[in-house]
Specification:
This protein has 1 helix and 5 strands, in the order E-E-E-E-H-E. By secondary structure, it is mainly β. The protein has one domain. A 5-stranded antiparallel sheet has the order 1-2-3-4-5, covered by helices on one side. The protein is globular and about 40 Å long. The protein starts with a strand and ends in a 26-residue tail after the last strand.
């Protein structure tokens, strides 16, 4: 069952991610339930700090602290994304938009 917290002026539903992106960490996903226009946020928690997949093991202050360190997934984290010559994570300009 997801938990909800108040943070950054909104209410967020907190769920554990099913698949861990990196070994030794677990991910928490925050979905804004008061403003669906906001992107979801993701934070990684060291596995040593979180023994299971139940968010009820965290207190509300812990979840707010984790939320404060989370990242929104509405923009690229590619360091050269603003450089037009950067060959990183960008759609191929010659690709068919379909």
């Amino acid at each position: 069952m997801p938990r909800t917290i108040e943070a950054d002026g909104d209410r967020w539903e907190v769920r554990p991610e099913v698949v861990d992106a990196r070994p030794g960490t677990h991910a928490l996903v925050f979905h804004c339930v008061t403003n669906r226009q906001r992107p979801y946020q993701v934070a990684e928690v060291p596995a040593a700090d979180w023994d299971g997949r139940d968010v009820d093991g965290f207190g509300e202050e812990d979840l707010r602290r984790i939320f404060a360190g989370s990242q929104p997934l509405d923009y690229t984290h590619d360091p050269g994304a603003d450089d037009p010559d950067w060959p990183g994570l960008r759609a191929d300009p010659g690709a068919d938009p379909e």
